[in-house]
Structure formats: structure tokens, C-alpha cells
Amino acid sequence: MTRVASNQALPDVTRDKIIESAGEVFAEVGFHNATIREICSKAGANVAAVNYHFRDKLGLYTEVLTSCLVTQQAAALNGNSEHLQDPRTALRMLICGWFERNHASGRPAWLARIMAHEMANPTPALDRVTESMGTNYLRFRAIVGKLIGLSPDDPCTRMCVHSIVGQILHYSQARPTLERLWPDLNLDDPEWRRTIADHIVEFSLGAMEQIAKRGWIDPLPSQWVEQHDMTQRRSQQTALPNLTGFSSSSATCSSIKSPTDMNKED
Question: Do 84 and 12 fall into the same domain?
């Protein structure tokens, strides 16, 4: 009986090893420059195993991306089913957690690096990846919409969300340039990361407070307004999913544990 169970578990072990090795290779050289032979050599697996588990390189690449996204989304939202009472706390936890994961090691670090390759040279996997982002994107918009008093589908809400995302990604995707422009910056130091994440939070909250006070004063293109009206009509027919999975936390990112800290506890 033990031998049978061991043999049944073997394919899953091989599959996980291939994903682990593929993540490292794709993060280093991107999809187009990676080879199945290099990935299998790193994983200690046969090339035929990729065909068996993933069909081809694109299938493997798509699995690596989606598995990373699922893991990060679960970490970002904590899997909590309770509705958010404090959107400021939720935004703080989302930004600080995301920023920390972008600069972690192992799987959390793959996604930012692979996506940098993907943005520069998109693959057919991008559609599947975008679908995987949908739930988190809606929840992020819902948090921001509460802060500025607008619908999650409002163009202003979306622009605020994208502005926040841009700040977070800047420190990971522009890191080589930042290290030359700002030699004292040390993103390997947890205190530096928490300070920057706190700045992004406060900067974003300050901007959104002003938007909430004065409203969006710049006229939007007419086609945006028409598209927004259509989206609003569709959304009225569909119940909004659970918006957040955050519980209350203290006022700064210092209280939010990094993936490294959580691994130590495990």
C-alpha cells in the first residue's frame, strides 16, 4: 500500500519541480528565450514530462503565471469572507503586502520579473493571466471607490487604482535605474521597503482625499462616459462579489509581516 501511494504522488512531485524550475528560468530570460531542455535539466526531469503535464512550453508558462497569481491573490486578500469596514486599512494592507511580495525571494519574486518580460513582449498567455487578475482588480477598485465615493467602475476610480499600481511596480521594474539614480536606496533592507510602502500609502490617500472633497473636475471623453453608463447598467444586474478579505491592522506597514517573516514562523 505504501509503495502505491508513493508512486501516485510521484507525478505531482515532478510537476511541482518543473514549475519551480520553469519559474526561475522564465523570470531570468522570459518566455521566448527559455528552453524546455534547460528547464528540465534544472528540474532533473525528462522533457517528456513537460508534454505529459503541460502539453508544451506555452502551457507550462501559463501554469507558472497563473499559479503565482493565485498564490499572490490569496495572500493579498487573506481568504476572509467578511466585508470591509475600514477601506483605509484595507488599502494599507494591500499596498504594503504587495510591495513586500514584489521584493521577496522565491515564487513571490517570479511574478514581477516574468511580468516585466511579458509586458515587453506579450505572449498568448496574457489573456489567461488577465482573467486571473479580474477578481483582485474588482476588489481593489471597490476599496478605492469607497475612499473617493465613486463606483468601482467609474473611470476616476480606475485611474486612481492604476496610479497606485504604477507606484508599486516602479520600485520593482525600474530597480536597476533607481540603484544608479539613488545609490543610498537599499530595497533589500526591510526597513527601507516598509518606509517606501508607507509613503505610497500616505501619498495615495492624500491624493484621494482631495479627489473625494472636490470631485473629479476634469471633463472625461464622451466615449468614456457612454462606456461607463453601459458598464453600470450591466453591473446592476450582477451582485458585486465580496469586496475584501482584510481585517483591521495598525497604522503602518511595519506591522505587516513579510513573506520571509511568515516562512520563519512556519
Answer: no
Which pLDDT value is given to residue 74?
Answer: 66
Question: Given this model, what pLDDT does residue 172 score?
Answer: 87
d(CA 83, CA 243): 6
Residue keyed to cell 486571473: 132
Span 6-17, mean pLDDT? 67
Q: How buried is residue 156: exposed, middle or buried, by Cβ count under 10 Å (0-12/13-18/19+)?
A: buried
Q: Is the pLDDT of residue 138 over 80?
A: yes
pLDDT above 70 as % of the chain? 71
Please name the amino acid found at residue 132.
S
Q: Does residue 203 contact residue 167 with C-beta atoms inside 8 Å?
A: yes
Domain of residue 127 covers 73-256
Say whether both 41 and 125 belong to one domain. Answer: no
Cell matching residue 209 = 482625499
Residue 239 shares a structural domain with residue 195: yes
> How many domains is the chain built from?
2
Position 263 in a domain: no
Query: Does the pLDDT at position 236 exceed 90?
Result: no
Q: Is residue 196 part of a domain?
A: yes
Closest residue by Cα to residue 101 from 68, 130, 131, 79: 68
User: Do residues 114 and 239 both lie within one domain?
Assistant: yes
